[in-house]
Amino acid sequence: MTAATRTMTGRFERLPPQLYFVTSAIFHYLGPAFAVLLFASIAPLGVAWLRIASAAAIFALWRRPWGFFRKLGAAERRIVIGLGVVLGLMNGCFYLALERLPLGTVGAIEFLGPIGLAAFGMRSPRNVVALGLAAIGVYVLTDARIEGEPIGYVFAFANCALFVAYVVLGHKIAAKGAADGVDRLGAAMLVAMAVALPFGIEDALPALRNPLLLAAGIGVGICSSVIPYVCDQFAMARLPRATFALLLALLPATAATIGIVVLHQIPTAAEVAGIVLVIAAVALHRAEEPGAAAVA
Q: Is 46 within a domain?
C-alpha cells in the first residue's frame, strides 16, 4: 500500500465507526435493486457467483491483495482463507434461501445468529434490555412467516451460521486496523470466487454473454459486497464484536426507511413501532469495557 493510500485510509479511520455501519446498511439494500434484473434471467447460484466475482475483480485491481497475502504468517493465512470460504458459501446459501422463502423470513432467521453473538458479549442489564428491544423490533419489521419450501429453511439457517462466522472472522482480520483488514478482505474475496466457481459459473454464463446483465452483476457486487464489506472493516476495527452484532438490528430498519424515502411506501403502525424499538435499542446500548468486549 502506498504512502498516499495510507494517508487517505488514516483520514477515513478518524470518522465515527457508526457512520461506516450505517453506510454499509444502506448499500446492503441497494444491491437487491440491481439483482431484480438478474433474477429473471439467472439462477440464484449464478447471481451469487457474479456478485462475488465482480467484487473480487474490483479488489484485485484496487488492492492487489496477493502480495499482501504472501507476507502473512500461516495462522493469518488460515483466517483469510476461512473468511473466503465463508463468504463464498454464505452468498450461495442466501440466494438459495431467498428463492424459496419470503425475504422477511430469511432476514429474521439471519438475525438469530447476531442476536446470539450479541447476547454472548453482553455484561450489563442495560445492554441486555437493549438486545431484547432490538430482537422484538427486528421480528416486527421482518414479518417472518412459516411458509415456503422446507429446504429453504436449511439454506436460511446455514446462511445464519455463516453470517456469524463472517462477523467473527471479520473482526479477526480487522484487529490490526482497517487498512490491513481491507487488504485481507480482498484476498478473502479471491478465495470466495474460487469456492463459488464450481457451483455458480454455469448459471452465470448468460450474464457473460449479455452486457446489460453483466453490468447489473457488477452493480450487485459493488453495492452488496465491495462497499458494505469495506465499511464493515472500518466499523469492526473500532467496535466491540457484541456492539457490532447489536447494530446489525439496524439492517431491517434501514430497509424500511429506504422504502419510505425512495419508494414512498407508507409503513404500517407495526413497522413504525419496529423501527422505534430498534432505534431505542441502539440508543440504549452502551459499549462494554474493553475487557468484556474482548471476551465476546
A: yes
Q: How many domains does the chain have?
A: 1
CB-based burial of residue 138 (10 Å sphere; 0-12 exposed, 13-18 middle, 19+ buried)? buried
Q: Reduce the DSSP state of residue 42 to 3 states and report it.
A: coil
> What is the Rg, in whole angstroms, of the alpha carbon atoms belonging to the chain?
19
**In the chain, alpha helices (H):** 3-13, 17-39, 44-63, 65-71, 74-100, 103-121, 125-142, 150-173, 178-208, 211-221, 227-236, 241-247, 250-261, 269-284, 290-295
Instruction: Tell whether the model's pLDDT for residue 73 goes beyond 80.
Output: yes
**Residue in the structure block whose three cell numbers are 502473512:** 72
Placement of cell 409503513 in the chain: 267
pLDDT tens profile 122-158: 677 877 887 788 888 877 776 666 667 889 999 999 9
State how far the Cα of 40 lies from the Cα of 164, in Å rounded to an integer.
Answer: 30
Cell of 67: 502480495
pLDDT tens digits for range 15-40: 888 889 889 888 876 776 667 668 78
What DSSP string runs through 164-204?
Answer: HHHHHHHHHHTTT-HHHHHHHHHHHHHHHHHHHHHHHHHHH
- Smallest Cα–Cα separation from 39: which of 80, 87, 95, 94? 95
- Domain hosting residue 162, numbered range: 31-295
Q: What is the pLDDT of residues 198-233, one digit of tens each?
A: 999 999 999 999 998 999 899 999 998 999 999 999
d(Cα 144, Cα 149) in Å, to the nearest integer?
14
CA neighbor of 217 nearest in space, from 193, 246, 243: 193
Let me know if residue 77 belongs to a domain: yes
Cα gap 155→293, rounded to integer Å: 30
- pTM over the 0.85 mark: no
